[in-house]
Design goal:
571 residues, alpha+beta, 5 domains, six-stranded parallel β-sheet, four-stranded antiparallel β-sheet, 11 helices, 32 strands, 21% helix, globular, SGNH hydrolase-type esterase domain-containing protein, SGNH_hydro_sf
Length: 571
């Protein structure tokens, strides 16, 4: 074969066979073309890793680089082929960036990329993101106390949960002074602090009053899009906030003609993260769409009794059975916690001190004015829990009406909230397999047996060895009572949560999926909507997850998106 530098204008570097046909080439945008090897390329796409330019260059033993120095095709020391291959699932209407833009400070280097759609490559320009505000503040009389054994940096925010909060999701501490002695304290020696602004003494002893000087960084979620009207890369700017920039009310929205490409998380004067959202349209993902469709069909088959009832217009009862992310309020500790729709469930919308603080009370007012509400058991309940998305989709998709405080009639759906905060799937402390609680769920006071049970434990179980066997007991009891079941795994948690590591979270999801397959019940695949490339569904940095308490409670927008994913998995 011979090298053909410019025989075909689509390629800047290529080889041809003896008949003059191009056998392998590198396009101007850095993607690779291999003739008559589509099956092999498909296999490479399945296994290829698309890393940053620097890591590509570091691991490649042999490779080709494009005009920007980015590796287009390389072989690693482990013998793995990596490259900038075309994404899977492309069609004539697909749009994608041939290579992710690099970030330099607040600059997004779009000129090093090309946008491809309809077989056309479009040149892009660099963009500059506006910084968010950085605020210098001083807090006097800060109660600096010893709370628990800690070191710097603090890896689990809950260890300092009892400390006073400075009111920002990201801070930099400049100085801490003991007001009694005037001594300046040393971070990592005298005190430690979390990135989100809570401080505590490292050594045990009496609490002190301190003067804390710090910089609070406001944050913002912008949107990078390609606008088909102006035919250019654009930035849609979100609203900067202390703690709630990730909520629906403040995130940038696409405008007319926009093709969303990246969600940009701006913290102070830096871009903290850039999340690829280009493969997502609502709950549909270009790359995993076929898997989503297959799983939905499987779930509908496993819920065929419930789906048949909906198609007939039978009255149905849906029960939520889980922990605090099901309950969203309500008492616990005695038998009254077993009552369906007991007082205060579905009322505790902002499950954590951060969203309940006085710093951004305007968010709570605005959200409660906009969210759906129903009156159940004489009390206003807010439709924040993910399970309400299921109820709403039954109503909109099957012509049902919501009914409360009685068994449902024809084309009516009743929702029974039987979640209990802090509970596990176990048989102690009012857990899911506690006989009295399980019996109360299957024979709810004032109602008949539910038609569908949404089982959502795991956030408090974590990797408990008995977790799956407990879920199996709940499934067996529900099926024996005549109810269909869908199992829902725990959502992903914040970077500094003690609940899961990425590895343990994936392990829990896989254990649940195996359990659901073995028990022949439906399963909500959280892994298709969180972590890795799938974080594009929420468009959020992992640091913005579970913001209500920076541990395991999401904010309203995260609950909404989780609920939409749940509903789409079988309705």
């Amino acid at each position: 074969m011979e090298r053909l530098p410019s025989m075909d204008p689509e390629f800047f570097y290529a080889y041809a066979d003896d008949s003059g046909q191009i056998a392998i080439g590198i396009r101007l945008d850095g993607t690779v073309y291999v003739a008559q090897l589509s099956e092999i390329v498909a296999g490479l796409q399945q296994d290829a890793v698309q890393g940053a330019t620097e890591s590509d260059n570091a691991v490649g033993l042999f490779g080709f680089a494009d005009q920007n120095g980015a590796v287009a095709l390389a072989i690693t020391a482990e013998g793995v082929v990596v490259g900038n291959f075309e994404p899977k699932g492309l069609s004539a209407v697909s749009t994608y960036l041939a290579r992710a833009p690099q970030i330099q400070g607040l600059n997004i280097l779009g000129s090093a990329c090309k946008l491809r759609y309809g077989g056309v490559a479009v040149d892009l320009a660099d963009l500059k993101v506006a910084p968010a505000t950085s605020v210098s503040e001083t807090v006097k009389d800060y109660p600096l106390a010893y709370i628990a054994p800690i070191t710097m940096p603090v890896q689990e925010f809950l260890k300092l949960d009892a400390a006073q909060w400075l009111g920002y999701s990201s801070v930099a501490i400049e100085s801490v002074v003991n007001q009694s002695t005037g001594a300046t304290l040393t971070p990592g020696v005298d005190y430690a602090y979390t990135e989100n602004g809570k401080l505590a003494l490292i050594n045990s002893g009496p609490a002190i009053s301190a003067t804390v000087k710090f910089v609070g960084y406001k944050e913002r979620y912008d949107l990078v899009a390609y606008n088909l009207v102006s035919q250019s890369l654009v930035i849609r700017q979100g609203t900067e906030r202390r703690i709630t920039a990730h909520e629906d009310l403040y995130r940038a929205k696409p405008q007319s003609g926009d093709i969303p490409l990246y969600s940009v998380y701006v913290v102070g004067s830096r871009i903290q993260a850039m999340i690829d959202v280009s493969e997502w349209r609502g709950v549909r993902n270009r790359e995993s769409g076929a898997e989503q469709v297959a799983l939905r069909q499987q779930n509908r088959y496993r819920l065929r009794r419930f789906i048949t009832k909906l198609n007939r217009g039978d009255g149905v009862i849906v029960t939520g059975y889980g922990d605090s992310n099901t309950a969203l309020g309500g008492a616990r500790g005695d038998d009254s916690a077993y009552l369906p729709n007991r007082p205060n469930v579905d009322t505790y919308v902002f499950q954590g001190d951060y969203l309940l603080s006085a710093f951004e009370a305007d968010f709570r007012v605005a959200y409660l004015a906009a969210v759906g509400q129903v009156t159940v058991n004489g009390q206003v309940r807010y439709k924040t829990s993910p399970n309400w998305s299921v109820i709403d989709k039954i109503c909109s998709g099957y012509g049902y009406k919501f009914a409360a405080d009685r068994n449902p009639g024809s084309r009516e759906v009743v929702y029974l909230n039987q979640g209990i905060a802090t509970s596990t799937s176990g048989n102690t402390a009012q857990g899911g397999t506690t006989p009295a609680r399980l019996a109360a769920m299957l024979n709810p006071a004032g109602y008949r047996t539910p038609d569908l049970v949404i089982v959502a434990f795991g956030m408090n179980d974590r990797t408990d060895a008995a977790y799956v066997s407990n879920i199996e007991q709940i499934i067996t009891a529900a099926k024996n009572a005549g109810a269909d079941v869908i199992v829902v795994g725990p959502h992903l948690t914040n970077t500094f949560s003690a609940s899961f590591t990425k590895e343990s979270w994936h392990l829990v999801q896989r254990r649940l999926m195996e359990c659901a397959d073995r028990m022949d019940v439906a399963f909500m695949p959280c892994e298709l909507f969180y972590a890795g490339k799938n974080r594009g569904y929420t468009g959020l940095s992992d640091y913005s997850l579970t913001r209500a308490n920076f541990a395991n409670h999401p904010g309203p927008s995260e609950y909404r998106m989780f609920g939409e994913a749940l509903a789409s998995s079988f309705l």
